[in-house]
Amino acid sequence: MYNAKGLLVRIVRNKLWRFGYRRSFCSLHVTSEDLDNQVLVEGSGCSRTAILNRPPALNALTTHMGMRLHKLYKNWEEDPNIGFVMMKGSGRAFCAGGDIVSLYHLQKRGSPDAIREFFWTLYNFIYFLGTYLKPNVAILDGVTMGGGAGVSIPATFRVATDRTIFATPETVIGFHPDAGASFNLSHLPGRLGEYLGLTGLKISGAEMLACGLATHYITSEEVPVLEEQLKNLLTDDPSVVEASLEKCAEVAHPEKTGVIRRMDLLDKCFGHDTVEEIIDSLEIEAGRTKDEWCTTTLRRLKETSPLSLKVALRSIREGRFQTLDQCLIKEYRMALQGTIGKFSGNYCEGVRARLIDKDGSPKWDPPSLEKVSEDMVDEYFSPLTPSEPDLDLPIKLRESI
């Protein structure tokens, strides 16, 4: 006979073994406790809190974390004794995104099914979160990037702090903004979404509040006070949760040098139809104004994968006319093309240069914007094969609830 935890270990071991984790599983001696500890749970009154708990990896998301979060949130949604839920991170991050280094090693080992499983699991949870029936709060105290934004922006309330650093830096590693980013970024004011998605540059918690990515702002030292206040609530009413958040909320003032203070210039430069025109516009403004912001933005764009820039621009522009589920289905296709398909070389090269060898000199393919054809961009948005199944989201079920 096996107890529940023992059975979980067997199931996870079999999955990992089948998907190509043989060496890592054996060497790390993964137990059910190790896996469960990647997402901890706190409960108080009628609320529950999911805690992302991989602080050495800045709480980067794994397939198991996605599975566990989905299971927890589903159980909490169905439990009449639970009124609202929260999510936060351990250490100095909320969540730095997906575990891109693990995906890199899976690709190198030839384990495409494990990569499919990761994106399938994460995107299904994000859709579930985006259609969640109970109030949910994300406390973004620290690094919040990539997939970390994906599992927090759909929340009813997003609390940023003075420690929050937000970015969608996927183009810098030869990938594209994903995990619902084409939906989230495309609904920001003006052309801010294009700027964030193409450059991957950071904004602060105060800037998140100013542009609507966050709903509330507090100082980091006030987070324990806010959490205690929320834990004492006995409610499933979002207006009551919001009133409690408002009691702790503070006024946030974006820095004068930040991008939020340059929205007119940003709209002027990033409103063009093509990446080439965006860069040309920035170069004109840099020469005319000598503005360091223009120079920094140009430098970042010229360091980034040319194919990723064109793919990201198209994805975000399409996102303005798509629902969250449509964006996730589209991004799932793109994610597979970018990690195990024809264009996976850029992802591997970007991760190698930024995070493995850390030489900072990725060799992109194609190496320049003029060599990125429209056919390449079109193919990036297509299934890997004609028979490749699209992301299967429970759209009819969730929309009928």
UniProtKB/TrEMBL annotation:
It catalyses: 3-hydroxy-2-methylpropanoyl-CoA + H2O = 3-hydroxy-2-methylpropanoate + CoA + H(+). Keywords: Hydrolase. Pathway: Amino-acid degradation; L-valine degradation. GO terms for biological process: L-valine catabolic process. Residues 48-381 form the Enoyl-CoA hydratase/isomerase domain. InterPro entries: ClpP/crotonase-like_dom_sf (IPR029045), ECH_dom (IPR045004), HIBYL-CoA-H (IPR032259). It holds the Pfam family ECH_2. Its EC number is 3.1.2.4. Gene3D superfamilies: 2-enoyl-CoA Hydratase, Chain A, domain 1 (3.90.226.10). CDD domains: crotonase-like. Coiled coil: none annotated. GO terms for molecular function: 3-hydroxyisobutyryl-CoA hydrolase activity. Hydrolyzes 3-hydroxyisobutyryl-CoA (HIBYL-CoA), a saline catabolite. Has high activity toward isobutyryl-CoA. Could be an isobutyryl-CoA dehydrogenase that functions in valine catabolism. Belongs to the enoyl-CoA hydratase/isomerase family. This is 3-hydroxyisobutyryl-CoA hydrolase.
